[in-house]
Give the backbone structure.
Amino acid sequence: MEKKTILNCNNTDPNKILPIKYTWARKHYKDGVANNWVPEEVNMQKDVEMWKSPTALSEDERRMILWNLGFFSTAESLTANNIVLAIYKHITNPECRQYLLRQAYEEAIHTDTFIYTCDTLGLDPDEVYNMYLTIPSIKEKDEFVVNMTKSILDPSFETKTPEDIRRFIHDLVGYYVIMEGIFFYAGFAMMLSLLRQNKMVGVGEQFQFILRDESVHLAFGSDLINTIADENPKAWDQELKDTIVENIKKAVALEYAYAKDSLPKGIAGLNADIIHDYIKYIADRRLERIRLPKVYNTKNPFPWMSEIIDLKKEKNFFETRVTEYKSGSLDWDE
């Protein structure tokens, strides 16, 4: 019998996941299940009061919140489309496909989170959901990822040759490492910094949950990329590695532009330059995770992030149930 592979496994049977070869895929699936949540579990009453108050938030804080809701509200749909329409089709391994189904569900939960937030706060959905068109720094990030991943959305695309697989790895890096691993993290730092100040705590808690999910997405994506590279060494050549590094440098520049746009004046303890340092630190971590050398050698300016992600328990809306969340197994900036 032909042995299991991530790509081009002719004996893939969606009903036969056992025996499992890629145990890391199964682990990530179980981690995702252990972190299960829905947005309605988060009480938003204090957020509503704060948002409606003319003095509780500064104009700069309101701008930062809206910019992040605008980016994430459509970025989550973009990532879901990549899974459902492209990645699942080409990943022929059943345990990896099982995780992709779990991830697709989580992306739906994230999308629902921003619907819930907009509805609860009484935001104008046309304003929030059109920011990917009306705000240049958001539009540029989305277009960068769309252009970087468009080949795998081509109905005729296959992974038969080393050149095809090289392109597939390239696009997976754009989706998992850049979109989910870099473009999401400036927003996480901004919103969680408000949570630390006890501002918009409901929205902050939801971003906290999303960050935990994204940590697993990133870990799965990195393992997926590394395994495909190991199984197809001709595709993992120096030209591709150099291209990936350049793409990540471009992503850091785009995220810095977004940070300057979101925080033109800065707020207490947070400004675009500090976010820039954080994104460079994150980018180095991403490069190392897919076995490429660091570029920036920047220290982490937000050591508190490792504490704020550690969700041990969370009460639901009516505070009638406490859900235990898996803790201690995830690296917040893996």
About this structure: DSSP finds 13 helices and two strands in the chain. The beta strands are 313-315, 322-324. The radius of gyration is 20 Å.
